Amino acid sequence: MNKNIVFAFCGCLFFISSFSQNKNTDELLNEIEQNNIELKAYKSFIESRQLENKSSNNLPDPQFSGYYLPFGTNNTGNYTEFQISQSLEFPSVYGARSKWNDLKLQQLETAFSKVRQEVLLKAKSYIIELTILRKQKVIEGVRRNQSKQVFDQIQKLFNKEQVGILDLSKAKIAWIQEQFLVEQIDTEMQIVLTALEKLNGGKSVEVAQKRMEESKKIAQIETLWQEKISADPFIQELKANEAASLQKIKLEKNKVLPNLTAGYNYQGVKGNNYSGFYGGISIPIWSSKNKVKAAEANYRFEQSNTEVITTTHYVNFKEQYSRYQLLLKKYKEYQMTMESLNSEELLFKAYMLGEFSFMEYYLELQFYHNALDKMLQMEKEIYQLKAQLLKHQL
């Protein structure tokens, strides 16, 4: 096969790289983060919940009550009384609830970070797919041109009555199939671009046609895991839930303290009156029953939940890491073999020298086409796996 196929694929060789370091990719991901409708909606949701949480720490409304008693049998005149009062929980309750609200905001923010990460990971997956499709289009374009050359050659041989109509028909079908594959790739690329536009809030996107650049290997698994547990919002959300549940215990303990009431009272009858300060306490004997125990039980649950989910997350992470390393090793072996053979070019030369019939050539060619396509799909899977392993860096 023409050397152009080899050059086209070599120009797309997979390096042990960090796809997220591509500047153009980062720019596109930042654009999607700003324009994504789901993320915008979630930000509004966080704002509403934050205001709602703050309102839960407001003082109760002040109360005004009054009496005017002109009826009845008395010699002292009409009786008048009014009172203005303000109730409040014990002052330390407001401080504890304020800290709890801050931690609930952290919960919302880590939940938002999870949603954001999934949106950007999906976008990155589409970018990887688009990059692989572009590589495939280059390869299929070369194959289409080669199949056209073969068809033209057989057409000439057919005109000279050196080959039969069967070979001519097969060559034409092979050429048509290659044309269809190129058109199919164009369609798939458009579908991916449409999906990216959807993530970008319906705005058009431009993905730079840039090769993946060589970079360092990913870190060792334990180093990468430590980086992950300190930055991954999935794990940060568990820690935020745990911290909020611990603060809830402190809040419930403070709510056991008496509620306070203070105010002003006036009483008057026939020119005589009394006025002064009003005060009272309300001891939450019944309303606070079992609430501290419930908060403590919930905290123990959150601790256990964090441990269980983190362990499960680590096991899944190890499986992905092992799969990535194995697939990368197989890919490199596959790549070295394909580069050393250059079998399609040798096969093409043999066909041109008449060592193969068209059908023999075509069947052998399909084997090498399938091998090269398999290699490209392995490359795609490696990039997708790496994106999963490094998604905490998004």
Number of E-state strands: 4
CATH superfamily: Outer membrane efflux proteins (OEP)
* Number of spatially distinct domains: 1
Helix content: 55-70%
Instruction: Provide the CATH top-level class.
Output: Mainly Alpha
Note the run of SSEs as H and E. Answer: HHHEEHHHHEEHHH
> What would you call the structural class?
alpha+beta
CA-based gyration radius: 37 Å
Give a quick account of the main beta sheet: strands, pairing sense, barrel closure: 4 strands, antiparallel
Task: Note poorly predicted spans.
Answer: 1-23
CATH architecture: Up-down Bundle
Report on this structure:
With 394 residues, this protein is of the alpha+beta class. It has a single domain, classed as Outer membrane efflux proteins (OEP), CATH 1.20.1600. It is built from 10 helices and 4 strands. The chain has a 4-stranded antiparallel β-sheet, with no helix packed on it. Strand 3 and strand 4 form a beta hairpin. Helix 1 packs antiparallel against helix 4 and helix 4 runs antiparallel to helix 5. The protein starts with a helix and ends in a 5-residue tail after the last helix. 19% of the residues are buried. The N terminus is likely disordered.
